[in-house]
Amino acid sequence: MKKVLFSFDIEEFDMPMEYGKDLPLDEQIRISTEGTKIVLDILRDNNISATFFSTVVFATHAPEMIRRITSEGHELASHGYFHSRFEENHLRDSKEELERLSGKKITGFRMARMMPVNDQAIQDAGYLYNSSLNPVYLPGRYNNFFKPRTKFVTGKLIQLPASATPLLRFPLFWLSFHNFPLWLYKLACHRTINSDKYLNIYFHPWEFTDLSLQQYGLPGFASRNSGDKMARRFSSLVSWMKEKGYTFGTINDFVADNP
Known about the structure:
Distance between the termini: 16 Å
Low-confidence stretches: none
Number of strands: 11
Helix content: 40-55%
CATH superfamily: Glycoside hydrolase/deacetylase
Mean pLDDT: 96
Structural class: alpha/beta
Radius of gyration: 17 Å
Shape: globular
Strand content: 5-15%
Number of domains: 1
CATH class: Alpha Beta
CATH architecture: Alpha-Beta Barrel
Number of helices: 10
Largest sheet: 5 strands, parallel
């Protein structure tokens, strides 16, 4: 059976700060909350469960979104305490705080911006799995071409890299989805799931809002096909996957069934 694992990194929308724009925290939370509502509506309408990696900052400021995520059958996982600041003690602190806020057990972790993080520290903090590796080469961001491309284990920690195509390692993450023709992205998904029997694809809810606004200062490759266009493209992808007979689920369920 071919399984699709959709995940969404929900965080304070601090990306404009990477491009010299200041955005108040309440506006960062508002944008991510607006996008999360859109994502949850699409998933609900398609009867799909997914995984949401949340920072503690977002969860604290948008508790109604955390309640909706868990009540609608999705998995809540940790995206750290803050999105733009990290210390190793945040691994355990974020897990415990998200469990307190949600009343759910937190088993998964994803590092902000898919940056390197100490595997032993993640395991020691009590996580079952880590999904922080983008196994591709992107100049200035990732140099992981020769690292494992599919699920593997380090110690007792299950590692689930983001999906990339076999051989050339064409990345299937959010930027590819925004910038490549949808037919090409679907073809890459088809070839990857035929090889691996699963897809691990991640997005951000703020992509489902209009990112072309001047006050965000984002480059075209980050804001292209955002907002309503993103919602339509994502819905088209879901419909295509259903036609192919793919199934959907949370990362926690997948790794529990495939240790």
